[in-house]
Amino acid sequence: MNPVPVFAFTCPVKTNSGNKALEHLPVELAGLNACRPLIITSAKAVGRKAIRTLQNAFGDSGMTLGLFDGVTKTADLGLIEHLKNICLGKKYDAIIALGGYDIVDAAKVLNLAVSLKMADAHKLSPQTPVLRHLSPLVVVPTAAASGLETSKFAHFSRRIYSSEYLAPNLVVIDPRLTRAADGKTIAATGLAALGRAVESHISADANPFRDAYSFAAIRFVKENLPAAVNKPADRKASLAILNAASMSGCAASEANSARLHKLGQVFYDMQHIPTGVIMGMCLPHVLGDYLQEGVNDLAALLLPLVGDDEFSRTPAAKRADAALAVLGRFLADLYGALGKDLPRNLREAGVPGYIMEDILDVLGKDNEGPYLRTVVERIAG
Amino acid sequence: MSIVKDIPSAKKPFKRAYVGIFLWFTGRAIQAAAKVDKEVKKEFDNLPDDFTFSLGCLPNGPSMVIGKRNGAVKYLGGNPGQHKVHVRLAIKSVDAAFLILSFQESTALATTRNRLITDGEVPYALAVIRILDIVEVYLLPKIIAGLAVKRYPKQWSAGRKLGGRIGIYTRTILGI
Amino acid sequence: MLLPDYYEFCCRVKIVAGHDALEKIPELLTERGAKRPLIITDKGVASAGLIDIVSAALKDRLFADLIADNVPPDSDLRVVNQLAKLYQENDCDAIIAVGGGSVMDTAKGVNIVVSENAADLMAFSGVGALKRPLKPLIAVPTTAGTGSEVTQVAVIKDHEKHLKMAFGSYFLLPDISVLDSRMTMTMPPLITAMTGMDALSHAVEAYYCLQKNPLSDAHSLAAVRMIYHYLPIVAENPSDRNARLSMAVGACLAGIAFSNSMVGLVHNLGHATGSVCGVPHGICMAIMLPYGLEYNMHKREEAIAGLLLPMTGEAVYRETPPAQRADKVVSLIRQLNADLNTITGGRHARFFQEVKDREGKPLVPREVLPEIARAALSDGASIYNPEDTDYEDNLMVLEAAWEGIPLDRNKIKRG
Ligand SMILES: [Fe+2]
């Protein structure tokens, strides 16, 4: 009776991007009724300079900032409990996560523990019900991002927390923090953004609200990643890539079956390989399979990839193939530019054989397990 | 386990001072332009008798206040707290104020970049922005003002530009 | 794609869309821990039978005495306070607003009063006075045009003190907007046409105005594609439910675009014409839209040309030489007005000369154009327009829009 199913979309994240974006933070926080933010970061991951830049942005605000700069990849609920007690005791009223990946995941889970005033944060689990807004959370990404920073997910201590309320209220993308130390870092971020954006379009039902984010992200990656990789000092290009990463996370919040995501995540969890590196390896295979299955809309990807002119010149029946071909060339150029720095397969990435067994085991538990394992075999090298 | 450090935010004395001086300078320039330029005068004539507006920067940066008092436009100092303000223009940070007052961004551009919060009746706020635009054209060389305003007024006579500019500069500095 | 030196974008509203999207409301309330919603609407919406549909969808979340249908066409502080009392006395925990702009404004006002326990609403007026989330507000728009289901502003009038209070805050964004095709199905063709042109003007203006950014652009393009395609279809076949849903979605996308990128000359002169002559907003938008494009063409030709593909599709795009694409967009919008004029039996006005009231009296006599041009100087939309506008510019554009002739582009002042 209803040919079009009910569809939904939400992106709770406000975006502030560009010149002096950080300096608006005191006013933004005041607008969220916060005046005592706690910065959560990892000095090792983002560097002292980035932390100083963020601190300096609060110059003249009269605010006092808390700083915890020791998030590690092995952070667990013990750390959350510890930080939660400090937060409640010292009355921090907002969290600013500086950086990407685990830093933001930890900040999201900490925000959950603090906002729900958990007596014991060890009791937190993905099943903990969240029915209301949490305290203000701001994400300030640096060059290394998984794209999930802006999403409603937190991958923390081998568990996946998911709630609309986990997403940050605000993402502040400032060009002083988004320039990468090397081409590989920004390439991984760009590929993660591309993978998530592509996947959030093709693996879910049509949704123009979500596509607004996905298509803008695809366009930004296609137009800016080569420049960002070849000239890591290019302010605008890396700013655009981090914009794309942020958009892709907003779009990914709604995607339900995400093959690239699952593949990227498992290698990150087990081997700390940046998500985008694996997504880049898997992209041609996974998209090729989607094309074969013939049920998903790959043709629409051509528009953000090539722009109005070339899209219009390509006959409708050939667009899906053309999109795949464009992506293939795009990846080949990227691998060409980065050489050994960007591994093309798991062997080049240095994934040891004994780990592969574990990875295949983890994937085997997924409902698409058998399929995902075939992809892993194809990228083994 | 690492602990949480508390860090008080730093001060920005140089930028604060620059912004403070430029707000003072712009305030004086508006006072002068209201005497020298027909259009600025007309804008002020259309505003109510006790009209007062402030331009300042958040969260607690320097400000300036301009008001109509007994028919004359006056620079009323740097403390908006003492006055009933009709229009409040607030720049989001001292750094953003620095961008605007060092003329890297015009008031209009700053508004469209969400750097400027405008509070008050819209028609009044628009009049204030038009006044600031005209004053910018006077104070700045064409090459900079051309970037700062949407349409650099080439139909202004050379006399208005030059005469006006000299008049405003001297009055600004002498405070008359 | 353009990345501005600095931009901000925010639309926190959860969008739920579909032919039976209303049926999701009970679940959405549960997710927010709410049990007793107050329904706010107006007499027109109720008498069109739309509240019956909403009521049926609410099932056990419906409380018959918590339906207030007394919102006046102009938001009113007294009604806001009365509805807030109703909410508080009945221990409500959410608001469902069903209607157009005035209903949404009223519901936002009620939400401020009940969430902040505000004795005086005035204390929360202005920009940024609200600092924390309000009670859950679900917006159910009954026109496809205004976009007020995704805007962060509200205007409440105090008719006793002759005050207009404006509120602006991201916390005023509804939590959820429910777009259901049944809510617009009974809209007559003329209203459909004018509200649809309002939506199109939002999408187009957002795409050329100064505050445009990559995310507002993406929403604009999607909106233009849907509205341009489906507007003539719904005007012709009011009961085409897929087209109705597409229009609701398109208008919402346009609302998201313009509430972030803002609007320019079309709205500037349109607001002024509305306030001087009482012409409905949508009609002003339909008439002014081609002129907004022409006036800003020398500054925004590339952006305007970028609207051609989403509007017409590949064939026309390919046939149009690059240098003519922007002009083609303008002529297609004029043609759309002409088509809507035909579909509505001549009632959809194409230029101001054609706008008549019920008795057939012209609503915009030529003599009032100077007054409109002056009034436009007091409207905030001018800030976001790419090219400057002064009194003479406004008058020149209005004269052309009155007669229905294209703008003489040589006469547009350039810096
Ligand atoms: Fe409108």
List the main descriptive attributes of the protein structure presented here.
heterotrimer, A: 381 residues, alpha/beta, Rossmann fold, Dehydroquinate synthase-like, alpha domain, 2 domains, six-stranded parallel sheet, two-stranded antiparallel ribbon, B: 176 residues, alpha+beta, Nonspecific Lipid-transfer Protein, Chain A, 18% strand, globular, binds fe (ii) ion
Structure notes:
The complex is a heterotrimer of chains A (about 375), B (about 180) and C (about 425). In chain A, strands 2-9-6-5-3-4 form a 6-stranded parallel beta sheet, sandwiched between helices. Chain A has a two-stranded antiparallel sheet with strand order 7-8. Chain A folds into 2 domains: about 15-175, Rossmann fold (3-Layer(aba) Sandwich), CATH 3.40.50; about 180-380, Dehydroquinate synthase-like - alpha domain (Dehydroquinate synthase-like, alpha domain), CATH 1.20.1090. The mean pLDDT of chain A is about 95. Chain A is globular and about 60 Å long. Chain A contains 16 helices and 9 strands. The longest helix of chain A is centred in the middle third of the chain and has 23 residues, at about 210-230. Chain A is about 50% helix and about 10% strand. In chain A, a hairpin with a 2-residue loop joins strand 7 (about 155) and strand 8. By secondary structure, chain A is of the alpha/beta class. Chain B is built from 7 helices and 6 strands. Helices cover about 50% and strands about 20% of the residues of chain B. In chain B, strands 4-3-2-5-6 form a 5-stranded mixed beta sheet. Chain B has a single domain (about 15-175), classed as Nonspecific Lipid-transfer Protein, Chain A, CATH 3.30.1050. Chain B starts with a strand and ends with a helix. Chain B is α+β, with helices and mostly antiparallel strands. Chain B has helices spanning about 15-35, 40-45, 95-100, 105-110, 120-140, 140-150, 160-175; strands at about 5-10, 50-55, 65-70, 70-75, 85-90, 115-120. In chain B, strand 3 and strand 4 form a beta hairpin. The radius of gyration of chain B is 17 Å and the shape is globular. Chain C folds into 2 domains: about 15-185, Rossmann fold, CATH 3.40.50; about 190-410, Up-down Bundle (Dehydroquinate synthase-like, alpha domain). Chain C has helices spanning about 25-30, 45, 50-60, 75-90, 100-115, 190-210, 215-235, 240-260, 265-275, 280-305, 310, 315-320, 325-345, 370-375, 390-405; strands at about 5-10, 15-20, 35-40, 65-70, 95-100, 125, 135-140, 155-160, 165-170, 175-180. In chain C, the strands form 2 sheets. A 6-stranded parallel beta sheet of chain C has the order 2-10-7-5-3-4, sandwiched between helices. In chain C, strands 6-9-8 form a 3-stranded mixed beta sheet. In chain C, helix 9 (about 265-275) packs antiparallel against helix 10. The interface between A and C is large, with 48 and 50 residues. Strand 2 of chain A pairs antiparallel with strand 1 of chain C, so a sheet runs across the interface. Fe (ii) ion binds near residues 202 and 285 of chain C.
